[in-house]
C-alpha cells in the first residue's frame, strides 16, 4: 500500500521522532503548520493502512511507525525500477548516473558501494 504525499511527509516526521504525541508532530512541521484536524485525519488514514499505531495515555495518543523507512522506500524504488525501467536495475543505474548531477566524488562513492556488493556475492 502507498502513502499520499501528505502522509509521507507526516510519516517522515514520525520516522525521525520514532514515537510522538500530536503536539510533537505539529511542532515538527514547518510554518505554516497544518490544522490539528488535518494531522488527525492523516494519522487515522495511516493507522487504517497499518503504517502506524498508537498507545493511549488517558485522552492522549502516542503514535509510532509500524513500517521501517528503509522497507517503505525499498519497495517503492523496486516498483519504480519495474514500472519505468523494464525491471532492469542496470537501466535505472544508467539513468540515475547520467541524468542526475552527481559529482566525480559521488560517482566514485557509488562505484565503491557497487564493488563492495560484488565482493559479497
From TrEMBL:
Pfam families per UniProt: Penicillinase_R (PF03965)
Gene Ontology MF terms in the entry: DNA binding
Annotated keywords: DNA-binding, Transcription, Transcription regulation
Record has Transcription as a keyword: yes
InterPro entries the record matches: BlaI_family (IPR005650), WH-like_DNA-bd_sf (IPR036388), WH_DNA-bd_sf (IPR036390)
Family stated for the protein in its record: Belongs to the BlaI transcriptional regulatory family.
Protein's name in the database: Penicillinase repressor
GO biological process terms, semicolon-separated: negative regulation of DNA-templated transcription
Keyword DNA-binding: yes
Amino acid at each position: 500500500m502507498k502513502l499520499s504525499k501528505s502522509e509521507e511527509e507526516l510519516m517522515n516526521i514520525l520516522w525521525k521522532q520514532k514515537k510522538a504525541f500530536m503536539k510533537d508532530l505539529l511542532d515538527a512541521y514547518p510554518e505554516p503548520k497544518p490544522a490539528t484536524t488535518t494531522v488527525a485525519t492523516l494519522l487515522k488514514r495511516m493507522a487504517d493502512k497499518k503504517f502506524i499505531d498508537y498507545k493511549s495515555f488517558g485522552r492522549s495518543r502516542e503514535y509510532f511507525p509500524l513500517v521501517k523507512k528503509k522497507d517503505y522506500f525499498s519497495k517503492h524504488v523496486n516498483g519504480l525500477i519495474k514500472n519505468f525501467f523494464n525491471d532492469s536495475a542496470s537501466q535505472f543505474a544508467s539513468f540515475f548516473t547520467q541524468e542526475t548531477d552527481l559529482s566525480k566524488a559521488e560517482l566514485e562513492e557509488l562505484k565503491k558501494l557497487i564493488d563492495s556488493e560484488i565482493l559479497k556475492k
